[in-house]
Amino acid sequence: MFWQFILENRGKAFGLAAGFIFGLLFLWVGFLKTIVFAVFVATGFYIGRKFDNEEDVGEVLDRILPGKFTKR
């Protein structure tokens, strides 16, 4: 029954787990450190998605730090 709920409601289950983890982080380390952690997780997800879609990560990094990742 538990696994059936998880499989039928993946988004809700993921959101519940993520909210629980970030809630615990907030209690243990504080608000600012939790926000910094969330930014790192989101950045890692974004770059990982670029790799999965076989997109050029250099273009993304070049937008962030112009001229540092391109050969001229």
In short:
This protein is an all-alpha fold and 72 residues long. It is 79% helix and 0% strand.
Question: What would you note in describing this structure?
Answer:
This is Small integral membrane protein. InterPro entries: DUF2273. Keywords: Membrane, Transmembrane, Transmembrane helix. The chain crosses the membrane at residues 20-47. It is a single chain. The chain is mostly helical and 72 residues long. It has a domain at 27-72. Helices cover 79% and strands 0% of the residues. It contains 4 helices and no strands. It has helices at 2-8, 10-29, 31-52, 57-64. Helix 2 packs antiparallel against helix 3 (31-52). The longest helix has 22 residues, at 31-52.
Proportion of residues in helical segments: over 70%
The oligomeric state is: single chain
Uncertain residue segments: none
How many H/I helices?
4
Major beta sheet summary: none
Estimate the global geometry from the Cα principal axes. Answer: flat
- Order of H and E elements: HHHH
| Helix/strand/pairing category | mainly alpha
The radius of gyration over CA amounts to 17 Å
Integer average pLDDT: 81
Protein name: Small integral membrane protein
Keywords: Membrane, Transmembrane, Transmembrane helix
Pfam family, one: DUF2273
Transmembrane segments: 20-47
